[in-house]
Amino acid sequence: MKVSTAAAVLTLTVLTGCQSLLGSREKAPPPPPDPSSPPPTPTPTLKVRKAAEQVIVAAWAEPKALPEGGGEAQILVRAQKRGGAPYPGVEVRLQASKGRLYSGNRILVTDAAGRTRDRLSALETATITLNAGGTMYRFQVPVGPVEPE
User: Fold this and answer.
1) 136/128 Cα distance (integer angstroms)
2) Separation between Cα atoms, residue 105 and residue 103, nearest integer Å
3) How many Cα atoms are found within 13 Å in the side-chain-facing hemisphere of 21?
4) Could you give the 3-state DSSP secondary structure of residue 12?
5) φ/ψ of residue 5, rounded to 5
6) Which residues, 6+ apart, have CB-to-CB distance to 89 below 8 Å?
7) What phi, psi does 86 have (nearest 5°)?
8) Where are the beta strands (DSSP E) in the chain?
9) Which CATH class is domain 56-139?
10) Can you spell out the DSSP letters for 69-90?
């Protein structure tokens, strides 16, 4: 059986066209997120030099909550050695889920009293994540009406 050159070219063109059509199908979009589940937390990029000893971290905001509409709060970090002695020279890096930190993701270093600070500007409740010499710590700075204690 002889196939003409024109028929072979036509067959090859049709098959190539079908292949490109099949290969160009768009994938279905991912399903929408479940509204009852919390939003995914971004992986922090909070690399710092690991401290020589274990770091005991305490961190908080002053004021501890911002008024409705947002504002600014000081973020205070205290690093201690086991036993309670201040831990100077500890590298600290902070990240906020909402708003802006004055440090802009730069490394801060604790002073002789084992303390450092940053400033948060936020319009919405923010989760502060920090790495102090290899010890991770997380807390929230709420925005809006605060329930009485």
Assistant:
1) 11
2) 5
3) 6
4) helix
5) -60, -40
6) 109, 110
7) -60, 150
8) 56-62, 71-80, 91-96, 100-101, 108-109, 115-122, 126-132, 135-141
9) mainly beta
10) T-EEEEEEEEEE-TTS-B-TT-
b or e along 40-79 (b: 16 or more beta carbons within 10 Å of the residue's beta carbon)?
A: eeeeeebebeebeeebbbebebeeebbeeebbebebebbb
Burial class (CB within 10 angstroms; exposed 0-12, middle 13-18, buried 19+) of 124: middle
Q: What residues pair up with 72 in beta bridges, in sequence order?
A: 121
Where is 10: in which H helix or E strand? helix 5-23
Q: In tens digits, what is the pLDDT along the chain, a chain of 149 residues?
A: 555 555 544 444 444 444 444 444 555 666 666 666 555 544 447 788 898 899 999 999 999 999 999 999 999 999 999 999 999 999 999 999 999 999 998 999 999 999 999 999 999 999 999 999 999 999 999 999 766 66
Q: What would the two tokens of residue 1 be? A: 């059986």
- As given in the structure block, the two tokens for residue 56 are 């005991």
